[in-house]
């Protein structure tokens, strides 16, 4: 499995330098393990690295990125690379069983079979123990890459069979350089996006492609500025505005799913099948909406928390370079004059609690309202 020194696909990846070079070395030296666990926060690029790793194992030229093999691996169309995702909440036991059977068949066109399992923590016990059986004694040419945000959720016996590769957020400077090159944006804007998204690659790319996210941040901060001058009733109005903004993308989702459903009635499916698929689409839409809403609420709270953190630091004499919202230095200075560190710390604490509540599925509207009431009380001067 010795490979040349092509490095094109690897060079496309933002950050994760140590991880990538150790995986590359493993391929070049023919030293690839049977099972890996890629662990780290959501959106940092674990899956892109997994696909690149798979391509570099199969590509006869290293990881040229241009050949038929590389292209199909990256598009998830290569017959010897299987990507498994949860369907609904979990990965189906049937899927794991079919992997177990499939793993013992010969590869279709290369020397290896690779299985990339996304959200590997989302497996029922039966699925996990079925997977364990094949990971324990894998056929020679089979490689598993389990991808997870939560290693604690993976069966310890599976975990102990995998080489664990830890991913962390991309350092702001590396992310900035990557965004400038790939997205052709100004250094100031790349810097701001890298900071606001906390080095999470997936989020940073979203921020570049969807400029409304920056407008949204400005709206949230305007609301935070207003909050220290309003009473409870007005705080409730602000909370409703913020909730409406959080809801907006979920409404778009429901329109998109309606479109999908309308295609079912073109007469190509029989009634029962169309009804079943329609029901599945409804369920999927609901799940996606819940996910999107939680994501929106968490983004809202994190925008607010960074804002108060910036004011706190600035008030204590921190340099502007340390600010997340560096473009709003004047506004931050103004708030720092008006607010005391004790109140600001209280705000950050409230937002931490609200963030945890969002993770525990507290209804978004209620969560936003109670956060804003808490902030209003802490800030009102
Ligand atoms: Zn290639």
What does this structure look like?
- It comes from Candidatus Anoxymicrobium japonicum.
- This is DNA polymerase III subunit delta.
- GO terms for molecular function: 3'-5' exonuclease activity; DNA-directed DNA polymerase activity.
- This protein has 381 residues and is of the alpha/beta class.
- It has 2 domains: 8-166, Rossmann fold; 210-379, no CATH class.
- It is built from 16 helices and 5 strands.
- It has helices at 8-11, 17-28, 46-58, 68-74, 93-103, 125-136, 156-159, 172-183, 187-196, 201-209, 212-227, 232-262, 271-315, 329-338, 341-359, 364-379; strands spanning 35-39, 81-84, 113-117, 142-148, 163-166.
- Strands 2-3-4-1-5 form a 5-stranded parallel sheet, with helices on both faces.
- Helix 6 (125-136) links the parallel strand 3 and strand 4 (142-148).
- Helix 8 crosses helix 9 and helix 13 packs antiparallel against helix 15.
- The longest helix is centred in the last third of the chain and has 45 residues, at 271-315.
- Residues 1-7 have low confidence and may be disordered.
- Bound molecules: zinc ion.
- The site of zinc ion has 6 residues, from helix 4.
- Zinc ion is lined by residues 59, 61, 64, 67, 69-70.
What number of domains? Answer: 2
Biggest beta sheet attributes: 5 strands, parallel
Helix content: 55-70%
Structural class estimated from helices and strands: alpha/beta
What ligands can be seen in this structure? zinc ion
Radius of gyration from CA coordinates? 24 Å
Helix count, DSSP H or I runs of 4 or more residues: 16
User: Could you tell me how far the N terminus lies from the C terminus, measured between alpha carbons in angstroms?
Assistant: 68 Å
Low-confidence stretches: 1-7
Average of pLDDT: 90
Proportion in β-strands? 5-15%
General form:
globular
What is the spatial order of strands in the main beta sheet? 2-3-4-1-5
Oligomer: single chain
SSE pattern? HHEHHEHEHEHEHHHHHHHHH
For the secondary structure, the number of strands is 5
Pfam family, one: DNA_pol3_delta2
Protein name: DNA polymerase III subunit delta
GO molecular function, one term: DNA-directed DNA polymerase activity
GO biological process, one term: DNA-templated DNA replication
